[in-house]
Known about the structure:
By secondary structure, the chain is mainly beta. It has a single domain (6-107), classed as Rieske [2Fe-2S] iron-sulphur domain (Rieske Iron-sulfur Protein, 3-layer Sandwich). The protein has one helix at 11-17; strands at 6-10, 19-24, 27-34, 37-42, 56-58, 61-63, 70-72, 77-78, 83-84, 87-88, 90-93, 96-99. The termini are far apart. The model has no long low-confidence stretch (mean pLDDT 92). Residues 45, 47-48, 50, 64, 66-67, 69 line the site of FE2/S2 (inorganic) cluster.
Amino acid sequence: xxxxWIAVATTKDLARxxxxxxxxxxxAIALFQADGQVYALADTCxxxxxxxxxxxxxxxxxxxxxxxxxxxLDDGYExxxxxxxxxxxxxxxxxxxxxxxxxxxxxxxPAETEAEG
Length: 117
Ligand code: FES
């Protein structure tokens, strides 16, 4: 898997609404700007596939418009569910936002595995 950085937007694009939806290799990614930092999370919610881009930013989290799961912008953690939304490394260089397309998925304490059925 390549770790190449891909230019996805300019800081000007993002500054307008403080959020932006981009596609990288066919994957939708939501960019957010908060406290001067740029964050990238998979746009498709891990719960029921609503678009996080359409969510609301609040206190360093993005609230999914689907069922109000609140994901930390920096690592995608959702505390009440103890689950993670994938995030992407981002860097900003001369007003261009670069993204590393390899997702990071946080890991929680070993989850209980329940047999289905
Ligand atoms: S679809 Fe995101 S919380 Fe349900």
